[in-house]
Amino acid sequence: MWNLLREHHAQVADRRFESLVDADRAAAFSAQAGDMLLDYAKTNIDTYGRAMLIDLLDQTGVAAKRDAMFAGAPINETEGRAVLHTALRNLDGGPVMVDGKDVMPDVRATLARMESFAADVRKGRFVGQGGAITDVVNIGIGGSDLGPAMATLALAPYHDGPRCHFVSNVDPADIAGVLRGCDPATTLVIVASKTFTTIETMTNARTALAWMGGTVRDPAAQFVALSTAADKTAEFGIDPERVFGFADWVGGRYSMWGPIGLSLMMAIGPDAFRAFLRGAQAMDVHFKSADWLENLPALLALVGIWHNQICGYATRAVLPYDNNLSRLPAYLQQLEMESNGKGVSIDGDALAVPSGPVVWGEPGTNGQHAFYQLIHQGTRVVPCEFLVAARGHEDDLHHQHQLLVANCLAQSEALMRGRGLDAARAKLAGRFKDAELERQARHRVFAGNRPSVTIAYPQLTPFALGQIIALYEHRVFVEGVVLGINSYDQWGVELGKELATALQPVIEGATGTDGKDGSTAALVGYLRRNGV
Ligand code: F6P
In angstroms, what CA-CA distances link 403 with 326, 364, 367, 373? Predict the structure, then answer.
């Protein structure tokens, strides 16, 4: 099938896909999940290519694997674990069995405990030494940071709780900057770490404990832990009452639906958090039940595979025309690149096709004044994914939102249509002549024929955010299955961690650079001479 797809691509690669885009195509190459629309009409995928891509889903057994995932089978094969973040939002669904046991009672009990604790904090029933909690500091990294940080920002219009801050980097500048603005006597620290061993998080947690201990008699009483490792949270001194546990079948980058989402729940409240879960659950139901031709995660995955593995476009830009989604690209970088950035298939064989793409992006319209130059006129094609809401939350500034939307649609139109040399000449004819006209006109040519998809929704509510994130999670799953990848491990992060541990005494000067390569030894030398 890969070869057939490549042959098809070779035949249509030079076609201007704009010629395909009439009103019928807009309907035929779009789909909806509830009120969320995915438009992929502005791509070079035609009915024939799409049929082959859908065959790929069937040949690689996506439906069976999807059902196995939802049913709690250990599809994370290198770690022998189930993959059940969907259980965390299975609010009114049936039982979910892992090793013969229904996990839903525990999931519901933990959610209820989170809700009760969040309500206590928000209503001033749980207090710090100095009174009601004014600030919540979430200390975590990767999946224990990016999800809640992204979502807390995305749902800023719904905040009615304490201020929430996020500390992730081991760079002391991060924690120092956040703690500077907080009062230890009214701050709650959440240590979010699935393993409770991650060096950045544990270092920052100890720094925060010492900071609080400078003012507060019993600092650990203002600490909360979100972790699968109850023994380690106890060792740290956190009362089991304030430990919110979860099972190992929740992957770090898929974890914000459970305890790791506590900071978000503090900010927006338990009801809005439930709406967020319901949005994701609605996308789960859609993913499980919709035909491939109507199935948003499957279609988004097929577009991704067409662009990356077939057309050879190595990167993918995520461009939210929704400023509150400004951390979405960073969140998706972990979700997609930690999941599908693998060199071998589940069986350990080298991948026959490239692994997942490089994901990057920034909100529009800001990106338009920065890197869109390359997207429009650079020599590399960057498939773009636009996200846009029909309405913002600033009712009195709706006309400004309309300008935002106009910009979003203008970009995908410009990428598709481009501007030819004749049109460029015509625009400049009054200003330049002859050779100079020719020279200037060439700088104003846009190749066009550059693909994009648009995800549109009525408003960025908690429900809509849940839909968007679950859509991307399932897209990553489908792409992973088609590529034969285990999307749920992350062995590629281990080597750097091991070497950092070994390098720390070298950096401190306790041991020398023997055995280090010349470049690393020279860098250590420079940094030591300059005071590291
Ligand atoms: O180093 C990668 C990683 O393991 C991620 O997968 C994970 O989200 C992050 O580190 C944080 O891990 P933890 O929640 O265990 O601190």
Answer: 18, 11, 15, 20
